[in-house]
Structure formats: C-alpha cells, structure tokens
Write a structure and sequence with these properties.
The protein has 411 residues and is an alpha/beta fold. It is 46% helix and 14% strand. Strands 2-1-3-4-6-8 form a 6-stranded parallel sheet, sandwiched between helices.
C-alpha cells in the first residue's frame, strides 16, 4: 500500500454490456499504478431500481428485437440537439445522488459512458462540481450523446470521428484502454494457446464475438462463416447462455464468457466482430486481422464505417464478400509468429498516442481539491424528499409502461 496518495479520482461507467466497464477497470488500474485512489461508480446505480432494470432490459431488447428502432434513435440523436437535451433533462433529477457519490477530496472525474456526461457536464458547467470532468470515448465515433457542456476533455482514439456538435470541444488523441497482455509478446505459443481452449492445432480458425450479451445476428454469422469453407468458427457468446446452448447443437467450438481473451486471440487467425467496440480494439492491439460482418445497428455500423475507411478492418457487406475477404486472409502470417501485430495499430498507435491515464493524472494534479460541493442539513432534507418523490414517480412510470406493453401484447 502506498504511504501517500496523489489524490482521488472518480471513474463513472455503466454496466450496459461489458465494454464501458472494462475500459473503466483498465483506467482505474493505470491510475492506481500512478498513485491515485480510485472510486468506481456505476451510473445506473444512481437511478431508482425499477428505472435501472427497465433501462438495461429495454436497451438489450431493442438491440435484439427492434434493431431498426435503435438505428432510428442513433440517427435522431445524431441530427437533433433536442433529443440529447431530453436525455439531459431525464437524468437531472438524480444529480444529487450522483454528487453524493463524489467525495469532497476528489480531484477529477472521468466517464466511460456517454449518458454520464449528460449528468456530470451540467454539474460542472453550473459549478456544482469543482473538479475537471474528462471522458474516454469507447467508440470510434464521438456521437453527440457523448458531448455535453461542462465536459473539459474528450479522450478519443486515433481515427475516431467527431459528429457535428453545437459548441467547441477539446479532443485529445489517446491510446485504447486495452490491457498490456494484448500488446506484449505472447507468453504461450500458438499451439499451446489452442490446446488450452481445446482447439484444432492446424486448422484456420475464425473467432466470432458479439459482446457480453451476444447481440446481433450471431447464429447467422456463425453459419455463414462456416459455409465459406475458409475457416472453422470459434464462437464466444459472452453471458448469453441461451445462445451458447443453441449454437452448441450445431457447432463444436462454442464458448461462454472467456476471462483469458489475450490467449484466445493468440490462438486464432482472424476475428469476426459486429460492433467495433472493445473486442475489436483488443484484436487490433494483438495484431489479429479483423473482419466486420453484420454490424449491429447504431454505433456498430458507425464504428464499422470508420474502421473500414481507416484501413484498420475489413468490412464484408454480404456472404459473398465474406468468403472473398476470408480467402484473401489465407496468406497472412499466423498471429503467434508475429506477436503484437504489424505496427499499424499495436505498435505505431501506442507509441504516437497518449495514455489516457496520463491526461487524467495531469488534470487531477493541477485541480484544486473541491469535488462536489457539500449540502447543508436543510438542503439534505430537501434532497431526501426530492429523491423520494423522484423514486415514486419513476415507479409509477415503469408500472404504466409495463401495463401499456401488456395491453398492446393482448391486442
């Protein structure tokens, strides 16, 4: 344990999938190595429990059952300032809960989830939060939902694109928040990595991933990858056990949640993904060729377009193109022979870009110890009453929505 800390940093994320939380965990680890105390805050835990559940399940459901609806929401929030303002207004009632999660000795607040900016940015702008607010953008598109007045710095990946926003913003190019295990030379050989996961030693293997929830057209993707005859699919279903059970009936190498992704990356020849998120960044850092196929709606398609234009990945728009892309990769050297990649991403980008923890450390060191301004006794009483009313209202809204969906289903 360190005898003296350089200060406290609060990292705000959300357990929507795993990408935002994993980035937050890596940032927290790096900050701790630099001598900071780090508090992790889940944005969803500041919401009343019924709203928290409804939000997470609604997001999961719309990705699975109404992808066109998610695409429409993504497009609408890209073009309309009012839609982002509405998000800000909906989150405003829980501002006091968020402020209570930020200790007075905090020197900086960092977010890895866009909606957190719509809550913390206004607090910073209205001087109810006296320390810098920085955000690490987990996507290759800085969508307007990430942007809020009051946010001091946006940490974006190289090649990331900024959508039009109504006010000037400060963007810093940073390294991806990917653990060092993906970028360093492998500790095991390719053959040992395959043996560890029970994979064939000599076949060409395609790792198919779809995030923690197993979102998207995963079953169709697996079938079409196998039908190319170029590779054998290895599927990671995340925490979607139902998907794992279905795929296991027809395919041999189907995994659930994998803790040792660096070793699994060393074992395969290509990664096929659909979102351009954390796993894509891990594969690029490892030097594994990445193919985007059947990207999910919204941020998945937006990320795919940026990655393809930058030349970091290959986007196969159809099953016919998928076969051509996978066949073209047949001449690429195996991952285990090259270690951490060809330098286009894993080498060059890591050297040229700044560690986001360094930016946070710099901002935290320069900032005065103010944190969230404390509330007096009278204000605390008013806050408690306000929280109670807000919770009650949220419950009523959730019940009303549930009743409406039930009536609609009966019709």
């Amino acid at each position: 344990m360190r005898e003296e800390s350089r200060g406290r940093v609060v990292v705000v994320s959300a357990d929507v999938g795993a990408g935002h939380d994993t980035a937050a965990a890596e940032l927290a680890r790096r900050l701790c190595e630099r001598g900071f105390l780090v508090d992790r805050v889940n944005l969803l835990e500041t919401l009343p429990r019924p709203v928290r559940w409804a939000f997470r399940e609604a997001y999961r459901g719309i990705l699975r059952w109404l992808p066109w609806g998610y695409e429409a929401l993504f497009t609408m929030t890209s073009r309309s300032r009012r839609s982002v303002t509405v998000i800000r207004m909906l989150l405003w009632p829980v501002r006091r809960r968020m402020r209570r999660r930020i200790p007075p000795d905090t020197r900086a607040v960092v977010t890895t989830y866009p909606f957190a900016n719509q809550l913390l940015g206004p607090l910073r702008e209205r001087r109810r939060l006296g320390v810098p607010v920085l955000t690490y953008v987990t996507d290759f598109v800085v969508h307007p939902t990430w942007v809020s007045p009051g946010v001091d710095v946006y940490c974006a990946l190289r090649h990331a694109e900024l959508r039009p926003v109504p006010h000037p913003v400060t963007v810093e190019e940073v390294q991806p928040l990917v653990p060092a295990a993906f970028t360093t030379a492998p500790e095991v050989s390719r053959g040992e990595a395959r043996s560890r996961f029970g994979l064939p030693r000599h076949d060409r293997l395609a790792l198919i991933v779809a995030g923690a929830w197993g979102a998207g057209d995963v079953e169709t993707t697996v079938a079409e990858v196998a039908a190319t005859g170029c590779v054998r699919p290895v599927v990671v279903c995340g925490r979607n056990e139902a998907l794992r059970e279905r795929l296991s009936r027809a395919h041999e190498h189907v995994l659930g949640w994998v803790d040792d992704m660096p070793t699994l990356m060393r074992a395969v020849d290509v990664v096929v993904e659909n979102a351009g998120g954390l796993t894509c960044q891990e594969a690029l850092a490892s030097g594994v060729p990445v193919v985007t196929y059947r990207p999910i709606a919204g941020h998945g398609r937006a990320n795919a377009a940026v990655l393809a234009r930058s030349g970091l990945t290959r986007w196969a728009p159809s099953a016919h193109h998928l076969r051509r892309v996978l066949a073209a990769l047949d001449g690429d050297p195996p991952v285990g022979a090259t270690g951490a990649g060809d330098g286009r991403w894993a080498g060059e980008d890591w050297v040229a870009s700044t560690d986001p923890a360094q930016l946070v450390a710099r901002a935290a060191t320069a900032a005065p110890v103010v944190g969230a301004l404390p509330a007096g006794r009278v204000r605390t009483l008013v806050t408690s009453i306000g929280d109670f009313v807000g919770d009650a209202t949220a419950v009523l809204i959730a019940v009303a929505q549930s009743a409406t969906l039930t009536r609609t289903g009966r019709r």
